Amino acid sequence: MKLKLLYSDLKSDLEVIEKELAVAVNSSSPLLNEASLHLLLAGGKRIRPVFVLLAAKFGNYSIESIKNVAVPIELIHMASLVHDDVIDDAETRRGRETVKAQWNNRVAMYTGDFLFAKAIEYITEVQNTYAHEVLSHTMIELCIGEIIQVEDKRFLDQTVRDYLRRIKRKTAILISASCELGAIASGTDAKTVRHLKLFGYYVGMSFQIIDDILDIVSTDEQLGKPAGSDLLQGNITLPVLYAKDEPAVAPLLHAMLEGTISATDQQNLLKAIRYSDGMTKAKQLSNIYLQKALNEVKQLPANSAKKSLQNIALFMSKRKF
Amino acid sequence: MKLKLLYSDLKSDLEVIEKELAVAVNSSSPLLNEASLHLLLAGGKRIRPVFVLLAAKFGNYSIESIKNVAVPIELIHMASLVHDDVIDDAETRRGRETVKAQWNNRVAMYTGDFLFAKAIEYITEVQNTYAHEVLSHTMIELCIGEIIQVEDKRFLDQTVRDYLRRIKRKTAILISASCELGAIASGTDAKTVRHLKLFGYYVGMSFQIIDDILDIVSTDEQLGKPAGSDLLQGNITLPVLYAKDEPAVAPLLHAMLEGTISATDQQNLLKAIRYSDGMTKAKQLSNIYLQKALNEVKQLPANSAKKSLQNIALFMSKRKF
What we know:
Chains A, B: Belongs to the FPP/GGPP synthase family. Chains A, B: It is an enzyme of class 2 (transferase). Chains A, B: Its EC number is 2.5.1.30. The structure is a homodimer. By secondary structure, chain A is mainly alpha-helical. Chain A has a single domain (6-318), classed as Farnesyl Diphosphate Synthase (Orthogonal Bundle). Helices cover 74% and strands 1% of the residues of chain A. The first copy, chain A, has helices at 3-6, 11-24, 30-41, 47-56, 63-88, 99-102, 105-123, 129-152, 160-185, 190-217, 220-223, 229-232, 238-243, 250-258, 263-274, 277-298, 304-318, and strands spanning 92-93, 96-97. A two-stranded antiparallel sheet of chain A has the order 1-2. In chain A, strand 1 and strand 2 form a beta hairpin. The longest helix of chain A is centred in the middle third of the chain and has 28 residues, at 190-217. The radius of gyration of chain A is 20 Å and the shape is globular. At the A-B interface, helix 3, helix 5, helix 7 and helix 8 of A face helix 3, helix 5, helix 7 and helix 8 of B.
């Protein structure tokens, strides 16, 4: 089943968001417009705006007010992607040239900064200072997550808890904020806001664990980038952490971290992790987060969005690449 | 006269801001703390917080509320510096190693993003949504200014107006916002806010023109970086723009833009601009902005800060390096 079918009843509202994103990135600089539109057209699943809209359905839904939350959330996501590309020196993303490849690092840097600033401008339209706090807090945690990823790189003595805290910041918080802010912006009651916020958090955790599993088990073609690239960059993800002491994994992993591994052994390392117990355990933990997410959905009031949230959670946690 | 003497009566309040900046950059990541503190200790003149405080003296001055404006303004300035260093591949700034030199680009990138986000968190404490708009608008214009600088690079057919619009965004708007936000945060009357905002704008314009003049006329030692480095990077500043058609300048300038200039001729180019009529004209325009700034000060109500604003404007526009 295609993701888009899961939220076909949001189609016209997602088009409003899409148009508003184009308005948001419009400026007096032709170069900035080109770079931003390039990013916008690269698309992406707009999964965060989908969460915003669905969460907003539990309150007084009005696309005109909800968009002031959905747009900044997506802008922050876009900004973080373009900044990642500068750092990772990435030439392509989702099969398209990156901004830094098509223009240069300077353009990519300030396009990212511009998108952050635009996000803030949009959220100020929401007459709820708590919503502003949620967004700035989310941005802060995102950045801390990125820095902690640097600190934890190549560091095998980290715990599963370290990993979970890191992906919470890197991924789960923004999805959680999407749900929370959508609900807040539509004046949803506090109890429902809390369930939606937790739902987003659990879905985000499950989603990132799956992402880290796919980095190891997928083919280059499925990922659109070399398989295992996270691992080869020294990011210690959950399957690696669980598998690190297995006899088939440990020597190769140490060789990789010491930079003495051959290209063939890199592939052997990926294969060893792929068939390790660590992989099974990682899948189990992802599934536990999925169940927690579904449990939050159950406690939501009945409405048309409830089933959609359930389906998207299942979809995101079951995807193959 | 030392700049610090000009605002000695702000000393204790500037210490409050300094302490608050240290609190602001504190996070759960030791690496981020180190990088941020490194930036903080690199210092700088804190001229923007000074403008915030002085402008606030025209209303109901309370350091506890004003700091929620002064801190984000300085954080945005710091963030833009650390991002500039990533792009310019700068190893030192103000004689200290940059964050990107001491750690790496990834740390510098996300330290900058973190500081932006922290700035936003602080301003949400100010119960005035117009203040939030001013800050996000300022951030947006700063980024557009940086991108336009890329567009205008090596482009000799630009007008003086193009240059002025660029430095307005790059420099004047943040100083203008410092004055405006300081005044707003202390509940200053609308007319005074307007004079202070304009004052900041004119001072910022004068300041940046002087900065661009100094890039050409100073020695490497005075600047702490190679003289003429802006020009050699292809940034067409006001003295260059005014001097570009002079016979002693034009051929060397074209050779530089085409990348066919020798090291000796680079020095000859700088010398030719230094002694050109363009240099005189640039100084004149800087002075016009200074006079406009002083004219705004004149129209402010009499108080202790009035004289300080006047002195700082004179100081900034008369500095030798």
